[in-house]
Amino acid sequence: MRGDVRALAEISRLARLATAGAIPEAIRRCRRAAAQHGATHFALFFTGRGIGSAKLVHCFDEEFPGVSKNTAAIVAAGSDSLSRHAAQSALPACWSMADETAGTFVTCLGQELTAAPGLALPVSADSGQTGLFVFTGEALSLDDVQALHLICYEIFASVAVLRTGSASSASAVSKRELECLKLTAAGRTSEDIARILGLSVHTANQYLTSAGAKLDAVNRMQAVAKAIRLGLIE
Amino acid sequence: MRERVERFPIEWIATAPERAQEWSTPYVDGLSGPLTREILARALREVCGAAGAAQFCLADLSRSHAEEPPKVLSSNWSFDAIDMIGTASIELLHQSSYATPLGQTPRAFAPGWTGPGLRVIDERTAALFQEFGHEELFLLKLRAGARRGVCMLSGPAGSMGRDQLQRAHITLNYLLSRYLEDQECGSTDPLSERERECLFWVSEGKTTQEIAVILGVSGNTVNKYIVSSIQKFGAGNRAMAIAVAIRAGVI
Fold first, then answer.
1. Which of A21, B52, B108, B205 falls 20 to 30 Å from B41 in CA-CA distance?
2. Does residue B5 lie within any of the structural domains?
3. How close is the nearest chain A Cα to the Cα of B94, in Å?
4. Do A201 and A114 lie in a common domain?
5. Nearest to B202 by CA among A173, A165, A220
């Protein structure tokens, strides 16, 4: 049941993104990059750990807004191994490649996800989100994987910005509120914060309450978690 | 910090000049087998040279314990420089807008810059940076899976080009990833699955009673899981445990 709700939220989010024009632009760049490296299929997934085991969340592929058969096959066969790889490594992983020794840093996935050779490139954005680009194609070449990977990082940065939806209200968090959040994240109590910043305990609590409201958090723990995930505090 | 960035015209923030120079790292390209500390140091020296930088400092920023300082994995700085400048300054710079994530054009930071701009480090540290030859420096954010790192490339002003730096950036990220995997220090996940689940729900703002309902266990059990995860992270309370866990990429 919870999965259905999530899927619906995901669809409406993607619909919003599609109209924004950023996704089509990302797909155009991806298609160009794929063609240059001999790939006929490409896909981008969001990875990351929510609850339970890690999963691949489909973002787009060559048949956007639909999902291509190739992508479905990759998810069915490699959801586990690909998300495990993305959670541990930044290195490209390949399968069914003839010239697997071509790249110094290219690792072998040890599982053939598609009949055609494939390449998976883990990416991350400054906001802390992680993703995985997958390219497959009979003529896929490992020449200059680094250049392709760099482009993937650039594309992902533009896509990940869209996904951080609540960043606008979060930017209104004041400097003083951030200081209080930072100290809370360092394990300080309201009394400690009041002493360190030279405020009254009441004022310190007030700052934390208003920061929580701006971040749409129900309590201190969630406010700290959101502030870190949004990159407001390190 | 964020607000201040926006108040300054963008042209005051220098980006690296474009330079059509050859990128060549034969040693790194020829690497095979496990990446030891010695091989890493040699590889970094080559990447540093290919980028036109004189000095490098690669640090691992992911910590599994609250009190842990950032760990320098490899550097060609003199001992005095690391001792006097300290890793705290690198961490300060890493948190500033000068640090570049992959996929962005690297941004130069000049410690000697006295005009308007961001004051990230104090004057004493800025003087130390210059004294040890860090006239212009670039902070490249690295990330391998859940682990974070940073590499600082520095040298004489104008010696590093944009294309070279971006190439260096991805190569450094690969090197860090390979190194951490080979060293088997990739296990920043000390929590059990149940503890991780509990901590995740706490970070979503759920109370003990709510988590107990979600997971179908008693409130005491939930508290037990949370307390043990707080202890494993060396944190003082729930909020701190969450902060450490998110930084370590556990939740």
1. B108
2. no
3. 10
4. no
5. A220
pLDDT tens, residue by residue, A133-156:
999 988 888 888 889 999 999 999
Q: With a cut of 0.95, is the ipTM above it?
A: no
Which of A30-39, A42-51, A189-198 has the weakest average pLDDT? A42-51
Question: For residue B148, which of B240, B58, B42, B22 has the smallest C-alpha distance?
Answer: B58
Give the least confident one: A91-105, A212-226, B153-167.
A91-105
Last residue of a domain, one of B135, B158, B185: B185
Q: Which of B28, B202, B207 faces A104 most closely, judged by CB atoms?
A: B28
Q: Is residue A4 part of a domain?
A: no
Q: Does A59 touch chain B if contact means CB atoms closer than 8 Å?
A: no
Tell whether B169 and B228 lie within a shared domain: no
State how many domains chain B has.
2
Interface of A with B in 121-160 (CB under 8 A): 122-126, 128, 130, 146, 149-150, 153-157
Burial of residue A83 (CB within 10 Å: 0-12, 13-18, 19+) is buried
- Cβ–Cβ contact A54 with B under 8 A: no
Question: Taking CA atoms, what residue in B is nearest to A104?
Answer: B29
In tens, the pLDDT along B2-22 reads 444 444 444 455 555 665 567
Q: Is the pTM of this model over 0.80?
A: no
Number of other residues whose CB lies within 10 A of the CB of residue A25: 13
Q: Which residues of A touch B247 (CB under 8 A)?
A: 228, 234
Q: Do A174 and A86 fall into the same domain?
A: no
